[in-house]
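Deliverable D5.2: sample structural annotation.
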Amino acid sequence: MDQASSETVYHYLQSLQEHFCRDFESEDGTRKFLKDHWERPPETGKLAGRGTTAVLEASGVFERAGVGLSDVTGATMPAAASARNPQLAGRAFRAMGVSVVIHPLNPNVPSSHLNVRYFQAGDIWWFGGGLDLTPYLIFEEDVVLWHRAAASACEPFHKRLYPLLRANCDEYFFMHHRGEARGVGGLFYDDLNEATPEIGMSWERCFDFMQSVASQYLKAYLAILRRRGNAAYGERERQYQLYRRGRYVEFNLLQDRGTLFGLQSGGRTDAILISMPPAVHWAYRSPDKELDARLLPYLTTLRGRDWSSPSKV
């Protein structure tokens, strides 16, 4: 792919970040995103590039909402990327993407995550990304809505795309040291290009799919936010939310490839870690066995269920 193709993706990602910020600001109604525009020249051991980190915090709706745009280049591939593609080790690369992490204040509203990204190393390119949902107080109808949106993102492209990417998500966001998933899943894909087994697509189709994933994420999450955002809660629910957020932090620091990629390649640490919830409570034991009994089946025994199919819900 040529430079013009990369610039096409970058301009789309710029507009996507602005779109997300406007919509989340509209939902909040009280605060605006703090936007930190940055550029970094080439420097030994660190990525060169540009981007914008947008953060909205301490509002009545969002305890933290982060929407990050980055476009970086490097002389050699970081280990987090070359481990999956050893043939690219030592090659120069360009990586760009938008990452969204939402941690709402109300425990009835799940945390959510979206990432869409594009990677190019010489004549090799791929798209990656996905969406996932992390509830603390479980509502099955929200899980169904979420997965039907994920299936809708995939449906125009390939009949096997949703089941494969749903399975990838279930595997990727599973915390083996806990024996449970981080949340209720969604989609996860990496290294998607024309050579991807079974679901390979042209550059143009992959780019269209990136846009479909981002659109369905916003539609589904805003629907859940509007459904749950004014629901009553008390100290019991708040303490359980803080406890379960500890799992979110564990996954991001121990397993998340995006976090590792950014840190290994000398990325902007504070921008990388905006994915962390601003308030967390670690405890030796769960503070609420009853709430555990409602949530944990969705993260263990029900993990991998096809929530998008009406006949199975």
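Annotation notes: The chain is about 40% helix and 25% strand. The chain has a mean pLDDT of 91.
The annotation will be released with the project's public dataset once the embargo ends.
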